[in-house]
Design goal:
3-stranded antiparallel β-sheet; about 140 residues; alpha+beta; about 10% strand
């Protein structure tokens, strides 16, 4: 009868804790329509260097939510012997797929907000970073 729109901010903690998974489960209770997911500009694997806390969180998340462990090599990208970059967009995509969202219904922005200076980034700018705002809209 109507459209349901939702917007989430999925930082690394929310992502590994299942924010998207919980939201998609709620949406599935509200509608039988095909769900579409858009993953907007955000930190990306080219710049998102992470430490042990994030690596551990990702590993636990894959187990907790029953996501294929082979996804780990796409989500945590080795850049050196002791450093990894986090592909948060790939983890979000994998979570959506695990709940039955069709691949063609997932759009992913290629923009990395760390290296693209059109966006504020605390990781890049530290205390000099500004803030961003996003909007979502639809045809009702």
């Amino acid at each position: 009868d109507g459209e349901i729109l939702s917007v989430l901010h999925c930082g690394w903690r929310g992502t590994v804790d299942g924010l998207l998974i919980n939201a998609l489960n709620c949406l599935k209770e509200l509608t039988s329509a095909d769900i579409e997911v858009a993953i907007g500009p955000g930190a990306d694997k080219c710049c998102y260097v992470v430490g042990d806390e994030v690596v551990s969180g990702v590993e636990n998340s894959l187990i907790q939510f029953g996501i294929n462990p082979a996804v780990k090599s796409k989500v945590l990208v080795n850049i050196s012997d002791n450093q990894q970059c986090f592909n948060i967009k790939e983890l979000l995509r994998s979570q959506a797929l695990s709940l039955g969202v069709r691949p063609e219904n997932i759009a992913i922005s290629p923009i990395c907000t760390i290296c693209n200076e059109q966006f504020f980034s605390f990781r890049r700018q530290k205390d000099h970073s500004g803030r961003q705002v996003s909007f979502i809209g639809g045809h009702f």
